[in-house]
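Final report, Chapter 2: Outcomes

The project's central promise was a pipeline that accepts a single protein chain and returns its three-dimensional structure in a standardized token representation, suitable for archiving and comparison. That pipeline is now operational. To close this chapter, we reproduce one record exactly as it appears in the project archive, with the input sequence first and the structure output second.
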Amino acid sequence: MQSKSPLVKLMLSTAIAAAFASPAMAQTSVSVEGIADVYVGSMKNSGDAGRVTSLGSGGMSTSYLGFKGVEDLGGGLKASFTLGAFFQIDSGIQGRFPTDTLFSRDANIALSGNFGALTLGRMISPVTLPAFLFNPIGDSFTFSPLILHKAVPTNGWASSFAGDTGWSNAIRYTTPSFGGLTANLYYQPGEASAAAGKKNVGGNVLYFSGPLSLTAAYHDVEVNNPTDPINGVSTVKPVSLTGGNVPFGTPAPIAATEQKLWLVGGAYDFGMAKLFATYDQAKNNFADLRDKTGTLGLSIPAGGAGKILASVAQTRRTSDLFSERRRTTYTIGYDYNLSKRTDLYTYLMNDKVTSYDNAQSFAVGVRHRF
């Protein structure tokens, strides 16, 4: 008999606990949520050795299973928890990658009220949420040019965001909304005596009012996530100490132990179309290694329940050790809602990194939210 995976065990234990819950426990409202997203396509990023025909997980959104609970404590005070586990629907494998933790999407508890909200645990990082919200292709780690440049390492490119898209052991304070304006402040201690003073700090501001939305975000990262290596943040860049452009990690990668990054973005809905734009700069504490990324995006209603989505991102990477490198990625696609929970999508993407050929990807997929 096969042993059950940690995720299956968790689901079974949750169901058993719910079945035998006492009346006091039933006062807490608990819900199950998630996304199942799968695509099939012909995939190649600039720098890849060859083209791959893939049936993959997470074309539009990373597949996950989550649990949420909230309890009204009275006097306007509420307690809540969030647990979220990524999985790969094409294979059933837990996590985004082999060493990923079980609840790498969310694992936190919060108290909220008129004062705002205080959240403790693992949660989305301060720059990741604005990056998702202010590009038309959202949280796609497969087709969004901004997210590809920032968070997806390839053979020809190292990701720009340090510290992962989620922070562990973190404290976040969220302000009440003031006329559509909300701020989030983050702190993550290093939790290691050998790395005294090592920490992550950051925050973001989000503004939504009618057709206009704006954001600004910042992070200072010294701690990697979900777990931190002894030698610090792995912000490895694809460069050679001799100045040549080489694939990711060879022959002499640069490793920075601190990164400071700021991002600004905006969007405006004209009715006929919604326009998106972001700009960010990242500076790593090694060899004046810097990334500057600008994006433009467009969402156009088309075909009743569908919309055309298009985005372009360009990153310029500089250092004292090598000549400027650039990555430019264009994506255009169509997303059609079959219902409030299920949509079909198709995308065409062109990717180009300095010293590598243009590469194209094409895919179709389906996403279901539950």
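Archive annotation: Helices lie at 6-19, 128-133, 145-151.
This record, like all others produced under the grant, will remain available to the consortium after the project formally closes.
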